[in-house]
Amino acid sequence: MSGGDAAMREYGAGQAVPTFEDPAFTPLAKPLSEARVALVTSAALHRPDQDRFSPSDTGFRALHRTDRNIVMGHWSPNFDHTGFQIDLNVVFPLDRLEELAADGVIGDVAPRHFAFAGNQPETVSEVRLDTGPACAQEMLSDGVDVVVLTPV
Amino acid sequence: MSTLAHVFEAAGLSTIVLASMKEVAEKMAPPRTLYCEFPLGRPLGRPDDAALQRDVLERGLALLEATGPVFETHPEVIESEETPLACSLPPRFDASLPPSVDEAQGLRSAYDRAVEARGHTAVGRAIGVDEIPAALTVLAQWADGAAWKEVPLPGKNTLAVGHDIRAYYTEAALELADGPAPGGRAVEAWFWEETEAGKTMMGARTALKDQDAPFPFWFYMAPGHR
């Protein structure tokens, strides 16, 4: 590894991270072939008609399973944005989830998927205490069992 | 991402993190992690590679069989491409304009084709496509020594305008370039190393720094390692 990715990974490795005492572990209580799966990304994705992410945005945007008209609103210049420009599945694999559901590997694709902005305040307390739990409730109300998280 | 995994798990959801930073994921220890050493910004590996994307998802979903916290690594490593994308730039057309302004205008038809094909554009955080030449004109003036406080930038926010200019160039370049999807950072290398707009933005960034503009105004105009 060299160049920008190596620099960013080295930077990330040295950053302080929030700690979680006694973290929860939720086993999947049904077969995967019956589970409903949602995507959540930190790529600050949104439809053009939705509010853009501000540089200090701690909120999230809901995207429908049929949405493909999506832009990346992340503020960092330190990672590749072009892969997403070419094929949104490299960040937000909605088409792959549909295929897994059609093939019976997973039970169903959730009706809504969610995007946060990865560039959060250091304490991430808003995401931890406010918007993260709110997003979880949205997914529970949609009958979601499994969440696949994709970073950028 | 790992923070959200812990929050969601506490709410009763089963999560899988496709991690891109190994040490961060190890320290934050989300319940199920598939570490993928892929280019940053491409957590599923490669655009237009459905087989790899599906493999990543299936390996991630397989972690649901574990009865406790689990951390696995995807066997494939994908390096970012640091060689600039092969994409020709328009020849000089109007010598009375700053080179980057002339260049940006020359890319407009490719950009318009790209937007027509995609149906949307990432340009528009601070300025619309019609303001790209005016923004580059001001950035070129800054690079040539004009005081940033006295020569205002259309759209004002240097970071947002920088994203708009890069998005404009990226969308045009992906329309112009032939061949398979470029690797991570190939378009970045093309923009910063080969385009006049890249040179203008880097010159403006240096000028802002030299004029003691606030750090966030200029630092994030370009990738940190550049």
Would you give an account of this structure?
The complex is a heterodimer of chains A (152) and B (226). Chain A has 152 residues and is an alpha/beta fold. Chain A has one domain (31-150). In chain A, 28% of the residues lie in helices and 18% in strands. Chain A has four helices and seven strands; from the N terminus they run αββββααββαβ. In chain A, the strands form two sheets. In chain A, strands 1, 3, 5, 6 and 7 form a five-stranded mixed beta sheet that branches. In chain A, strands 2-4 form a two-stranded antiparallel ribbon. The longest helix of chain A has 17 residues, at 125-141. Chain A is globular and about 40 Å long. The two termini of chain A are 17 Å apart. The relative contact order of chain A is 0.26. The model of chain A has no long low-confidence stretch (mean pLDDT 93). By secondary structure, chain B is mainly α. Chain B folds into two domains: 2-73, no CATH class; 99-221, no CATH class. Chain B has ten helices and three strands; from the N terminus they run H-E-H-E-H-E-H-H-H-H-H-H-H. Chain B has a three-stranded parallel beta sheet with strand order 1-2-3, with helices on both faces. In chain B, strand 1 (14-19), helix 2 (22-28) and strand 2 form a beta-alpha-beta unit. In chain B, helix 4 packs antiparallel against helix 6, helix 5 packs across helix 7 and helix 8 (186-194) packs across helix 9 (196-210). The longest helix of chain B is centred in the C-terminal third of the chain and has 19 residues, at 158-176. Chains A and B meet through helix 1, strand 4, helix 2, helix 3 and helix 4 of A and helix 1, strand 1, helix 2, helix 3 and helix 7 of B. Strand 7 of chain A pairs parallel with strand 1 of chain B.
